[in-house]
Inverse folding.
């Protein structure tokens, strides 16, 4: 079954998604167990260590790929004659599932008061709903939407006083409708403005990257290159931006996502995906063991997302509650960064072993629950 | 169309297998890229009692020569006309008659071969084009986003359909032109060949088929244009909606922010 | 619900009498039924035992082979304009076969084209024929040929005047041989217009010829099955007289007076037979006499058709007919060419004009012998193959100058006495061009008039 699945899936996408999962796991283990990677932590970890730079790339790559995957899935379904209304139903159901699943995740993995922190799951769920509209409108509309999402984000952050919602690097909101709505739109971890632009960009870029058969996808590389260039230009033009619109000192930052960061990660995602597709997908004649594992991990990314949090966050809560009566007692001080990194690597090996077993028919997983609920 | 013809390199007479030694063979290009050869065979003066047998012998030999180059080895068209005979196939023909009539016969045969080759080429292209009509006809009724990648292909087929109509429009007057009056041997021969090869009927059929192609691909073009136009309108409407939504978001967040203590 | 007979004058169905069961009478009733908005009661009187008049396709007795004894071909005007007869033939579901024949035999030589003409008669003769052809086409264009009813004044002269301009004697003989049998008269007895028509009919740009597959009489059979008239065969109309109310009594040899008068009478007879009917009333009789005198330009045809045991001339005649210079110019039809694989051979001679009138006086055997002698030697020896021969004499059956020297208006042509007897109308090919197309136009015009009046 794994082999058959591998024949219909693109190895490049599985590989990219797995890379995002790996980066996310490493970052979260180190960050949550040993503290922010922003601070220098020994000889290997730190913002001044260049090899740590890709850590900000995981979330945008993952959300970008969610748009790409949706486009490829929708086009394949349509080419098989599936009715567009049926596709809409499936998509909306998936989106609502992911939003509710995201709320539940926030309550069970984090704290009940974190239910509306607008994490990546609720973003991707919202993206599903938006992608369903994008599928049924001309591409130019989606391009304009992306532009508005990216362009208005700094304005909205300025209007809503973004920094007032963030304390010590965490999103902190009051349980009011106003804060909840503002967090959803502009100030949360992954607010609509501008993060929704990434899956929409993936949706737009997919035909450019994957639609040309064996030909070099010049259009995709050009688009990716132009976005990267624009990102650099935006960062260089920072001195021209009114101070009111600047909510972060750095040119390249994830929280809040600067314009250069958003454009750069979209452009980089396009270029990476294009190069990998060109080099990997056309020449893969059956997958090696690494790509097979990547495929399994990619297929169960939702389950792995939950599992990796449970694996390192729940022990923190339990240990803190048991030992000192405060679940937060060991938050970011549980281990040194190197230990946290080692545990992350060990967890990843476990996940690699686990992922292929999740493929077996009848094995429960978040994906099987999603399919059971959302597909006819 | 034929623009020139030339005699074979050896010029004048050349022995052709099976035909009398004084037979002249001329060669010229055809509209479909092939080469057409016409042999001019002078009927010798013989006694009346031997005339029929001599003619039959010559016609038989000419038929063999013509058949050798016929596509698929199909039997040639043999037509007698007022003391002359013509053996014709799309690649070769033989004109048998009195020596003083051969030049006028050649002119008629070459003219007919040129037109017939053009018609045959058009028929072949129409046959190829008709293979796609059933699938493309759906797009003449309804065109959607998924069909957009086929736009260039449809445009190319429309262009081909118009090209076929143009070629037929150029060919039709020559085919339908009545033979000169009072009749000449060349005119009668041309008319006879035209009738026997059913050129007029074939032309009419080709015109009908080309009309069908033109209609289908013209409709496809209309549907494409309509779709693109409606898509532009839809895009504009959506952009307006998005801008309004962005404005609503901006105003909402501004309101919320201004009322937050 | 039982239909009741009309009880009042206004309820009574109009009664129309049609005298003559040839193409004119049949077409008149056919069009009358089509054009009328209400039922009409028509009675068709035919003196002979058959319908069809000059359209006759009998069979030989020694073999079941048909031949044309009357009208040999139909004219197709579609190269120039609408052809109602062609449309009618198609509507009746009849198949047609094109007819053609370019050969004219002069002094035993077969001349099929200008090249043959130059070889046989010389280059000067060819030039003379080409010049005549050019002149003829300049005098009458295809549109004028089509609308020959409105011929220009320039062609209202004897046809000899046109032929005299052919200076080369051999060329003139060639042209005369080509058209004599179609003309059915001598050039000095007909107009330039009519003569030119019979020359230019050989040009496909003006007209084409065709016949009905299976015999032209199928046209008659098809019409007869479609008309609703009460057909009285073997009933000759002896007299037509008027009664009160402007109606007509039609008195026949068969049963004397009719009980109910007719509201209108259509006389669709050849002119010679029209003259034989008695019209009571001085005014009416005088009008008819004037009508007859105006159109009395008799022309003659003689047909001799021979059946042979095989088409021994096969391969020597190209086309459905050729012209011989014998008898002043006659047409030789190869009627077996109309069949794809004929077992027998049928040759038909059509003589016209003075030759037809002269030879019609001879007995059948003499005629057949003369016809066989007229065949050119290169066609083969006919006598050993002869099986049967038939002769049909059509003396005075057509008009040498259809329409007369100056054709009156269309209404006037069909109403000999429009003021006194507007409901007495005539139909005939002699009013137009002596063709079936002409008789159709005539019948259609009369039917339209009657439909407007009574329908």
């Amino acid at each position: 079954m794994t082999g058959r699945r591998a024949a219909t899936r693109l190895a490049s996408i599985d590989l990219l998604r797995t890379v995002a999962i790996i980066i996310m796991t490493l970052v979260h283990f180190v960050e949550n167990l040993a503290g922010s990677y922003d601070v220098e932590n020994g000889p290997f970890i730190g913002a001044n260590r260049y090899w740590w730079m890709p850590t900000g790339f995981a979330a945008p790559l993952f959300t970008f790929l969610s748009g790409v995957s949706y486009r490829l899935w929708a086009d394949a379904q349509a080419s098989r004659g599936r009715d567009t209304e049926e596709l809409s139903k499936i998509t909306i159901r998936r989106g609502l599932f992911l939003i509710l699943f995201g709320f539940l995740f926030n309550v069970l993995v984090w704290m009940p008061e974190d239910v509306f922190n607008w994490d990546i799951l609720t973003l991707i769920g919202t993206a599903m709903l938006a992608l369903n509209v994008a599928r049924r409108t001309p591409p130019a509309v989606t391009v304009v939407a992306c532009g508005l999402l990216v362009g208005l984000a700094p304005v909205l952050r300025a209007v809503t006083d973004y920094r007032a919602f963030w304390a010590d690097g965490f999103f902190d909101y009051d349980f009011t409708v106003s804060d909840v709505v503002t967090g959803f739109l502009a100030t949360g971890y992954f607010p609509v403005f501008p993060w929704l632009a990434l899956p929409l960009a993936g949706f737009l870029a997919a035909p450019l990257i994957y639609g040309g058969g064996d030909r070099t996808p010049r259009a995709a590389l050009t688009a990716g290159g132009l976005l990267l260039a624009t990102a650099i230009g935006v960062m260089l033009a920072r001195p021209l931006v009114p101070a009111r619109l600047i909510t972060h000192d750095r040119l390249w930052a994830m929280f809040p996502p600067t314009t250069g960061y958003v454009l750069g990660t979209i452009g980089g995602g396009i270029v990476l995906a294009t190069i990998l597709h060109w080099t990997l997908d056309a020449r893969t004649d059956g997958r090696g063991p690494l790509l097979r594992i990547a495929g399994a991990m990619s297929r169960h990314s939702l389950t792995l997302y939950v599992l990796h949090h449970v694996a390192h966050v729940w022990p923190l809560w339990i240990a803190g509650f048991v030992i000192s009566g405060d679940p937060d007692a060991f938050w970011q001080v549980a281990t040194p960064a190197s230990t946290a990194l080692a545990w992350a690597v060990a967890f990843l090996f476990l996940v690699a072993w686990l992922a292929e077993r999740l493929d077996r028919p009848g094995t429960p997983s978040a994906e099987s629950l999603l399919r059971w609920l959302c597909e006819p | 169309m034929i623009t020139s013809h030339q005699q074979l390199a050896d010029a004048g007479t050349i022995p052709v297998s099976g035909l009398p030694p004084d037979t002249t063979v001329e060669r010229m290009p055809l509209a479909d890229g092939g080469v057409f050869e016409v042999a001019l065979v002078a009927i010798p003066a013989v006694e009346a009692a031997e005339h029929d047998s001599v003619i039959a012998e010559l016609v038989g030999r000419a038929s063999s020569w013509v058949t050798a180059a016929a596509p698929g080895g199909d039997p040639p068209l043999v037509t007698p006309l007022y003391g002359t005979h013509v053996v014709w196939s799309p690649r070769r023909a033989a004109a048998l008659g009195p020596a003083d009539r051969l030049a006028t016969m050649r002119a008629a045969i070459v003219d007919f071969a040129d037109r017939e080759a053009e018609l045959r080429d058009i028929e072949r292209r129409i046959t190829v084009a008709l293979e796609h009509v059933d699938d493309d006809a759906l797009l003449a009724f309804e065109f959607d986003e998924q069909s957009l990648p086929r736009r260039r292909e449809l445009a190319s087929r429309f262009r081909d359909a118009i090209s076929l109509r143009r070629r037929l429009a150029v060919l039709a007057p020559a085919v339908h032109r009545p033979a000169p009056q009072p009749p000449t041997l060349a005119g009668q021969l041309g008319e006879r060949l035209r009738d026997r090869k059913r050129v007029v009927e074939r032309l009419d059929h080709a015109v009908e088929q080309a009309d069908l192609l033109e209609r289908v691909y013209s409709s496809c073009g209309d549907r494409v244009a309509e779709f693109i136009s409606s898509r532009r309108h839809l895009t504009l409407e959506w952009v307006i909606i998005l801008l309004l939504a962005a404005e609503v978001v901006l105003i909402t967040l501004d309101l919320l922010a201004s009322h937050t203590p | 619900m039982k239909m009741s007979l009309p009880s009042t004058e206004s309820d009574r169905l109009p009664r129309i009498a049609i005298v003559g069961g040839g193409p004119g009478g049949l077409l008149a009733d056919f069009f009358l039924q089509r054009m009328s908005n209400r039922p009409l009661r028509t009675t068709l009187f035919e003196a002979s035992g058959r319908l069809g008049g000059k359209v006759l396709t009998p069979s030989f007795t020694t073999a079941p082979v048909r031949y044309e004894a009357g009208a040999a071909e139909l004219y197709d005007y579609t190269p120039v304009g609408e052809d109602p007869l062609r449309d009618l033939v198609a509507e009746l579901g009849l198949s047609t076969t094109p007819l053609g024949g370019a050969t004219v035999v002069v002094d035993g030589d077969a001349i099929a084209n200008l090249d043959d003409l130059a070889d046989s008669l010389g280059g000067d003769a060819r030039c003379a024929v080409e010049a005549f052809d050019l002149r003829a086409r300049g005098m009458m264009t295809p549109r004028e040929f089509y609308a020959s009813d409105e011929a220009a004044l320039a062609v209202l002269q004897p046809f000899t005047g046109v032929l005299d301009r052919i200076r080369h004697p051999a060329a003139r003989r060639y042209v005369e041989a080509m058209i004599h049998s179609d003309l059915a008269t001598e050039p000095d007895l007909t107009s330039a217009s009519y003569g030119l028509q019979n020359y230019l009919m050989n040009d496909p740009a003006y007209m084409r010829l065709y016949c009905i597959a299976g015999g032209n009489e199928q046209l008659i059979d098809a019409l007869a099955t479609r008309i609703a008239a009460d057909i009285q065969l073997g009933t000759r109309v002896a007299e037509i007289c008027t009664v009160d109310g402007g109606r007509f009594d039609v008195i026949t040899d068969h049963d004397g007076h009719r009980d109910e008068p007719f509201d209108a009478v259509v006389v669709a007879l050849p002119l010679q037979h029209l003259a034989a009917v008695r019209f009571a009333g001085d005014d009416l009789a005088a009008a008819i006499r004037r009508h007859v005198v105006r159109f009395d330009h008799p022309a003659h045809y003689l047909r001799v058709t021979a059946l042979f045991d095989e088409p021994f001339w096969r391969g020597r005649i190209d086309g459905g007919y050729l012209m011989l210079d014998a008898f002043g110019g006659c047409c030789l039809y190869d009627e077996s060419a109309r069949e794809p694989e004929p077992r027998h051979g049928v040759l038909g001679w059509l003589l016209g004009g003075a030759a037809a009138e002269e030879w019609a006086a001879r007995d059948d055997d003499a005629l057949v012998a003369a016809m066989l002698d007229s065949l050119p030697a290169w066609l083969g020896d006919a006598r050993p193959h002869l099986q049967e021969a038939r002769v049909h004499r059509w003396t005075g059956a057509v008009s040498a100058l259809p329409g007369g020297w100056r054709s009156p208006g269309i209404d006037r042509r069909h109403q000999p006495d429009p003021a006194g007897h507007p409901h007495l109308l005539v139909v005939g090919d002699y009013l137009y061009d002596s063709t079936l197309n002409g008789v159709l136009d005539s019948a259609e015009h009369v039917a339209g008039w009657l439909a407007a009046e009574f329908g």
About this structure: Chain B touches chain A at residues 145-146, 231-232, 234-235, 238-239, 242-243, 246, 249-250, 252-254, 256-257, 259-260 (CB under 8 Å). Residues 55 and 65 of chain B are 15 Å apart (CA to CA). DSSP finds six helices and six strands in chain B.
